[in-house]
Design goal:
Length: 284
């Protein structure tokens, strides 16, 4: 019996064990109070308020529903990021490409709000941080100039950093590796590339000619959206072809920082996932 009990406890995470212990204790109190007839005995004081069995079951159902919703939001955010990255090379070839790009970026920013998770306070903060980026992007689409572009990029950088930090905290505090953790891990990596993309474009707006672009006669003279994305993910993955070269110390340092962050992120992510998998295997 002791070995069987230890085996069952070993299958549960720390959070699940605590919830089951609390539920079992509450159920035991409910049963004991009902069997002893607390409410009918006049010489006993009234018992404290206890949750009913239905209340406890409803609480478990709510937690299960929240878990399913969290996994859905994480997958939704990842899908929005992948669609944006896949569509980016083709949008500049069409007259309506800017409209589609604006819609896709807006979709990514909106999808990131529930994907951050947390309590209501976190949701409100993420919404307030996303609004300047969304409004700035549409203002830049309606009246394209350096001012509206800078407003959008500044807001997008702040919001992207907020999303990355919260996703990283979630990955490091997770009890087990599931779909939500894997989606958060991939989304964080892609969001890092998008974060640096916004930073490269912001530097180009503030200090033009910060990059040397060698992409043939049809190449752009200034860094645009897709080429900033190309340069960012090239640094993030360690794959560069020398077509875009930093021409200022700020960009050089920013590119170096991106490569270092990518290296440390992959090391932390892999070590965390391996640790969770190893811990789960030892409990079996």
């Amino acid at each position: 019996m002791a070995q069987g009990g230890n085996w069952v406890v070993g299958q549960l995470s720390v959070a699940t064990r605590l919830r089951q212990i609390q539920k079992s204790a509450a159920l035991a109190r409910v049963v004991s109070y009902r069997m002893m007839g607390w409410r009918r005995a006049s010489h006993f004081p009234s018992p404290p308020h206890l949750p009913s069995v239905r209340t406890l079951e409803a609480s478990d159902n709510d937690q299960s529903s929240d878990s399913v919703a969290s996994r859905f939001y994480a997958a939704q955010f990842l899908i929005a990021l992948v669609i944006l990255l896949c569509a980016a090379p083709f949008l500049e070839r069409f007259a309506w490409g800017q409209v589609v790009e604006t819609i896709l970026i807006t979709t990514v920013l909106i999808a990131a709000i529930p994907a951050v998770g947390g309590d209501r306070r976190t949701f409100v903060i993420s919404t307030l941080l996303a609004l300047p980026a969304i409004v700035g992007r549409w203002l830049h689409h309606i009246a394209p100039n350096d001012l509206t572009s800078t407003a959008f990029l500044g807001g997008a950088i702040v919001f992207a950093a907020f999303v990355v930090v919260h996703h990283l905290r979630f990955i490091l505090s997770a009890d087990e590796v599931d779909t939500q953790v894997l989606c958060a891990g991939v989304s964080t990596f892609l969001m890092l590339g998008l974060l640096w993309t916004f930073a490269y474009l912001l530097i180009e707006n503030i200090a033009p000619q910060s990059y040397l672009i060698q992409m043939g006669q049809s190449g752009p003279s200034r860094l645009n959206g897709f080429h900033a994305l190309y340069f960012s993910f090239g640094n993030l993955s360690g794959l560069t072809f020398g077509e875009i070269t930093p021409a200022s110390d700020v960009v050089r340092m920013l590119a170096l920082l991106e490569s270092m962050v990518a290296m440390f992120y992959m090391a932390i992510l892999i070590s965390r996932l391996v640790a969770l998998h190893t811990e789960r295997a030892l409990h079996k």
